[in-house]
Automatic annotation (TrEMBL):
<keyword id="KW-0408">Iron</keyword>
<keyword id="KW-0949">S-adenosyl-L-methionine</keyword>
<dbReference type="InterPro" id="IPR007197">
    <property type="entry name" value="rSAM"/>
</dbReference>
<dbReference type="Pfam" id="PF13353">
    <property type="entry name" value="Fer4_12"/>
</dbReference>
<dbReference type="InterPro" id="IPR013785">
    <property type="entry name" value="Aldolase_TIM"/>
</dbReference>
<protein>
    <submittedName>
        <fullName>DNA modification/repair radical SAM protein</fullName>
    </submittedName>
</protein>
<dbReference type="InterPro" id="IPR058240">
    <property type="entry name" value="rSAM_sf"/>
</dbReference>
<dbReference type="InterPro" id="IPR010994">
    <property type="entry name" value="RuvA_2-like"/>
</dbReference>
<dbReference type="InterPro" id="IPR023874">
    <property type="entry name" value="DNA_rSAM_put"/>
</dbReference>
<keyword id="KW-0479">Metal-binding</keyword>
<dbReference type="InterPro" id="IPR051675">
    <property type="entry name" value="Endo/Exo/Phosphatase_dom_1"/>
</dbReference>
<keyword id="KW-0411">Iron-sulfur</keyword>
Amino acid sequence: MEIQQDMTISEKLKILTDAAKYDVACTSSGVDRNNKGKGMGDAHACGICHTFASDGRCVSLLKILYTNECIYDCKYCINRKSNDVKRASFTPDEVCKLTMEFYRRNYIEGLFLSSGILKSPDFTMGLIYETLWKLRNEHHFFGYIHVKAIPGASPEIIEKIGFLADRMSTNLELPTKESLKALAPNKNQKNILAPMRQIQAGSGNLIAPVNDGYSLITRRGNKMKSKFVPAGQSTQMIIGATPETDYQLMSVTEYMYKEYKMKRVFYSAFVNVNHNIDAPAPVGPNPLLREHRLYQADWLLRYYGFMVNELLNEKRPNFNVVLDPKCDWAVNHLERFPVEIMRADYYTLLRVPGIGVKSAKRITSARRYNNLNFESLKKMGVVLKRAAYFITCNGKTMFPLNMNQDFIARSLADTDKRQTYAIEQDTTYKQMTLMDMGVRVNG
């Protein structure tokens, strides 16, 4: 371990932004808050800007680690204690300075703050609490703040931070106890799930004193100025480091959404940065493509009314790498198609490939007043190169349909070849990071 002394804030920023790139947080804020002319920044439900890391991952906000020093030795983590990497730690004042200066320059609209574990979970979370308290109370920052909760931290410190942050997240890391024990022996599911349950249950069991930066909270539910984690919580799983199937991963995801009311579950394709894990053969030709399929399935769970056991099962435990999960489901359930656009209910329309949430709502609204045709469907956002195989419009098809499973599957796969190739070759669109922009911070 190489601990750097007397580093400038810019040197720390370079180390600690790079160290944070494996924490996925591509989210809008999910909360509205106006500073009412009394402070700096606002938080808007859909107003958080996004940027992309150098490896193509979408990241939001000023995304940094408080420190990359860590007392744990997780095999998959670049910041594990046994690695010989440059170490750096911010101070609370330095994080405040970075956040405020970047906000004033319009580089960011908020802060994503994670951390390695310095001395102990409570010690580290105490430093993060001090940082957030200063941002909110001394700098009057009203922008969006997303904070990682450290497993093993006391409920009291989680409670205090929850009134200062908009969103909190606790990384599930790996989907099973066995995998966690093998790759992260210092962590256990009990400590990971405890802050999740606390955040899910909300506040009310503790007294939050006024001089800690938020209003007095009582069990009687008196009116309070600050809400407890108003934008909810999220989590992240590493995929590909251990042998879980897509079915197992999505079953854990479904459980997280139902039992812990997660706003998002993120998936991070395993990168063997330490070259010390004999990872199982990845599902499909590319781990990034597998990650992509998991995100597509996650969307189906959250917005399209699908259940995991409709998409996968023990006999068919992994997603088709050639077809996206929705198209794959439709091809395997041709007995349900074609559906008539003028009569199908909203949830039936959502199951048609090429019809999304917005276009399904537009269809159900517009057809009350007019007969729809394929041209009007295209204007509503329906992707006809997919949907045409599964719909009729006023009893007519767009072209003579061949309801042969192999034919439709090949036709749909051809339409996705360009996107699949881009993911496999890692040639997807990339946006400059703050470092690419040549950001300089005095200090």
